[in-house]
Amino acid sequence: MSTDSPQPVSPFARLLGRAAHIEPREAPAVVTAFLLFFCVLGGYFAVRPLRETIATILGGDRVANVWVVTSIGAVAIVPLYGWLVGRVRRAVLLPSIYGFVAVSLAAFGLLFRARPESLAVGAVFYVWISVLNLMLVSVFWSFLLEIFDGAQVKRLFGVIAAGGTTGALVGPLLTDLTVQRIGNAGVLFIGATLFVGAIIAQRVLVSIWKEGRTGQAAPIDRGLGGNPFAGFSIVFRSPYLLMLALFVVLLSSVNTFLYFEQLNIVRDTFPDTAQRTQVFARIDYAVQTLTVLSQVFLTGRIAATFGVRALLVTVPLVMVGGFLALAALGGFAILAGVMILRRWGEYAFIRPGREMLFSRLDTESKYKAKNLIDVPVYRGADLLVAQLQNALRAGGLTSAGVALLGAGAALCWAGVGWWLGRRHEAATTSGERAAGSLGR
Question: Does the pTM of the predicted model rise above 0.85?
């Protein structure tokens, strides 16, 4: 049952409260969610530089082909996840997912230690982590959307997202400091350890949720039931969700145009693979430093003052300018600047804004439809744009031409973000339920 009695507030909760308005009853859930997201993204970003290093070894053509397998895996995981969430209590399912990741990372660590030069092991790891990382983030936010209501989401999601960004800063920092001593295989054990922490934090957060300690009614923890393929039908019935899927497709397109340019430059500049891992780690924690400051001090305030639309539109418009500068001037400095702007903007503003768009949907949509959009739609767009970019390159398209395509995609991305933000804010203002307005 829900409780309105005053809750003790920890010093850490008071610190977070300086950045966002956190009510005392919300503080335990906010702090625990912050720490959970810290462990999840810390574990992922500790091993992400290894994934990028593997990509430089495989090369652009092989990576584009590996993305075919990644997209197949992303589609295959949707009905499996739909079946699990339909039949397994969240109190059991969510910690088990993080436990599976911890064991998998340790297993890959042993494989890399035994066969450090194996391209096959590297390719399998690349596919596995590329499918799983999107699902992990999707699962985290699905549960948070169940804990907090729409008004809480606007106030709290920025500061909670900062927990993940802090982890995304600490993870690559640990990798940078240790990889020369423990090797790429040892980095995977760092990631596994952080996911053990995620198991503990998730169990605590589940207990807070089941006791109704965030102001919401205490839930009935059971499987959602329904068809494991329900995510497909939910999305195809809803113009709102179809536009959200298009938003993700355009986001992925912009990212992919830049990604392959990055691979080529880093491969040509840094011949040593451990050094490449360090370079990617340093890029990661430079971006995350900017992001965590923005999430703590800006994201929630922007959403509350200007609405979700501002979070969704600003970054795409900035990227239009970035791509045009890249087309006109080229060079590593411009590319690095555009990459930093893109990743900073995505983590600080776009990702929290995307999650807010799901806040008024029903529970089944928050898990099944959201997972479909976050994983196979995203990875499918990766695949299509990667193959298109390779084909255009083979046909003689220059880097400037790729940049102009990126500018066009970013402009469309801004337009879709405007539509989604306006639709969401209209529903929020009028007090309509998602099942009645946004769900159709």
Answer: no
DSSP 8-state assignment for residue 218: P
pLDDT in tens, 374-383: 888 888 888 8
Which residue has 């039908």 as its token pair?
233
CATH superfamily, domain at 11-430: MFS general substrate transporter like domains (1.20.1250.20)
CA-to-CA distance for 55 and 49, rounded, in angstroms?
Answer: 10
DSSP assignments along 274-309, one per residue: HHHHHHHHHHHHHHHHHHHHHIIIIIHHHHHHH-HH
Residue 322 has which token pair?
A: 């970035």
Is the four-CA dihedral 39, 40, 45, 48 of positive or negative sign?
positive
For residue 79, how many C-alpha atoms fall within 13 Å in the half-sphere facing its CB?
6
Torsion of CA 48, 52, 53, 58, to 10 degrees: 140
**Joined tokens for residue 134:** 């999107």
Torsion of CA 370, 373, 375, 378, to 10 degrees: -150
The pLDDT of residue 409 is: 94
The pLDDT tens digits for 26-35 are 888 999 999 9
